[in-house]
Structures are given as structure tokens and as C-alpha cells.
């Protein structure tokens, strides 16, 4: 038996229920190195395999919103300095409020373009794709909006969330609920 199967046997019943859900939200932190986050995806995959009764290597085929948070954090802004990431993100939708599926897909592709800068050496999209069989999008987000990038918390003027609602509505959409505009 693997370590994940031992954990699965001991875990809280609410976790088992959550793993048996119809979709998932992953929160990735670009201020942290990728190894622990990658290991968490591997452990999640094994637990999910046990709950769903899947064979080793079999994709789950459930939607997952992969949320990349803290894009306004000083260390992330520094890493992305000299790139067009923030300008490209603003060009797609400068408010982060769009609930258009095409906009969400563009933001996801942009996150993939810059993943190597955020997590050098982590083939994140391949790891997520192997788990979910293509049913995922990356969601860039920040609680302070694009105008507050890299500022100290004490210097920020207001909360203007960017992209916070999109992952939840996309998950509902992917689960068959018509919540996104046509």
C-alpha cells in the first residue's frame, strides 16, 4: 500500500466527500518554490485515484480551476519584470471582471506562457493534464487588481479583485450549469 492510501484510510470523511466531487479548485502560490506544490498535486492524484477507483495513470476527466494567486506580490512582480505579462493580461481584460469563456481561455494560455518564469523546471501543464485529461484552465488572480502590482500592503489604496469570481463560475459551467454569458 502506498503512503497516499494510508492517508486516505485515516482522513476525515469531509475530505473523502470533497475528493468525490464534480470539480476542483487548485490554488498555486508563485511566491513559493514548485516542489512542494508539485508533490501536493501528486498526492492529490493518488487520493483521487483511490476515491474514484481509477487505474494508475488514468485521467480523472473532471474540471479543475487552477488558480494562480498573489500575482501582485512584490517577488512575483520582480520575477515578471521585463516581460509583457501584466500588459498582456490587461490587454485581455484590464478589470479582471470579464466572465466570457474566450477571455478565461486567453488568460489561461497567458499563464502557461509565463509558467517557466514563475516556476522554473516545473512542467505544470503536463502534470495537471495527466491528472485531468485536459479539463482545466489556469486563472490568474489578485485581490488588489493590476494597478496595485508590487506595492507594499500599507501603500495599497483599495481592494479591486482581479479574476476572483471566474474560476467558480467556470467550474459551474463545466459541470453543466449555464452561468456564463453566451
Question: Explain this structure to me?
Answer:
This protein has 182 residues and is mainly alpha-helical. It contains 8 helices and 3 strands. It has a 3-stranded parallel β-sheet with strand order 1-2-3, with helices on both faces. Strand 1 (24-28), helix 3 and strand 2 form a beta-alpha-beta unit. Helix 3 runs parallel beside helix 7. The longest helix is centred in the N-terminal third of the chain and has 19 residues, at 34-52. It is globular, with a radius of gyration of 17 Å. It starts with a helix and ends in an 8-residue tail after the last helix. The mean pLDDT is 84.
Q: What integer value in Å does the Rg equal?
A: 17 Å
- Put simply, the count of helices is 8
For the sheet with most strands, the description reads: 3 strands, parallel
Element order: H for helix, E for strand? HHEHEHHHHEH
Shape: globular
For the structure shown, list the relevant keywords.
182 residues, 8 helices, 3 strands, 47% helix, 8% strand
Amino acid at each position: 500500500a502506498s503512503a497516499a492510501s494510508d492517508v486516505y484510510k485515516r482522513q476525515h470523511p469531509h475530505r473523502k466527500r470533497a475528493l468525490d466531487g464534480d470539480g476542483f479548485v487548485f490554488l498555486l502560490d508563485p511566491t513559493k518554490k514548485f516542489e512542494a506544490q508539485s508533490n501536493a498535486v501528486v498526492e492529490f492524484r493518488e487520493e483521487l485515484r483511490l476515491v474514484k477507483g481509477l487505474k494508475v495513470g488514468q485521467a480523472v476527466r473532471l474540471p479543475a480551476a487552477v488558480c494562480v494567486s498573489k500575482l501582485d506580490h512584490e517577488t512575483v512582480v520582480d520575477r515578471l519584470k521585463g516581460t509583457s505579462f501584466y500588459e498582456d493580461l490587461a490587454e485581455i481584460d484590464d478589470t479582471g471582471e470579464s466572465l466570457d469563456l474566450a477571455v478565461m481561455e486567453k488568460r489561461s494560455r497567458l499563464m502557461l506562457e509565463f509558467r517557466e518564469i514563475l516556476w522554473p523546471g516545473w512542467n505544470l501543464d503536463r502534470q495537471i493534464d495527466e491528472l485531468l485529461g485536459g479539463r482545466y484552465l489556469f486563472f490568474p488572480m489578485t485581490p488588489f487588481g493590476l494597478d496595485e502590482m508590487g506595492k507594499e500592503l500599507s501603500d495599497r489604496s483599495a481592494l479591486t479583485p482581479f479574476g476572483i469570481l471566474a474560476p467558480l463560475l467556470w467550474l459551474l459551467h463545466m459541470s453543466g450549469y449555464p452561468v456564463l454569458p453566451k
